[in-house]
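Here is a complete protein record:
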Amino acid sequence: MVIREVKTIVKEYSSISELENEDKMLVEKSKESVKNAYAPYSSFNVGAAVLLENGEIFTGNNQENAVYPSGLCAERVTLFYANAQYPDIPVKAIAVCAYLDSKFIKAPVPPCGSCRQVLSEAESRFNKPIKIILYGESKIYIIDSVSELLPITFDKSFLDK
């Protein structure tokens, strides 16, 4: 038997003022986009902003549906939109925030499993790390790569013949 240890390194900040300018700007864009979320069933609005390596920024938000599996999370809405517009440009970073009961929530919200898998695909597609910025009113997490967030992942290598 072999025992493997898997670690995730998360940088925690107590204020948006501690972030680099590019990260601050991306967080602010995600906070703006949360206002346009369609979340009439959960009232849990999530916003995301994606920065591509060419400097283009795309924003998106969660889109719910009465048939729950038919909705889509903010991270996937935003990534798919960015990749549809610029299919050959790597994603540099993504910022995510959540809003509930007329205020941003205190703790950062991590991406769900499906969003982690889509982020992983975007990272492996270009073989470049994607910085993940998770915003909460009381703290902000920065993770330098999706592989830190989803260390044991299913990727295209399993489909090689």
Remarks:
- Strands lie at 11-13, 44-52, 57-61, 91-100, 103-104, 131-135, 140-143.
- The domain at 11-154 is CATH 3.40.140.10 (Cytidine Deaminase; domain 2).
- The chain has one domain: 11-154.
- The CA atoms of residues 90 and 128 lie 7 Å apart.
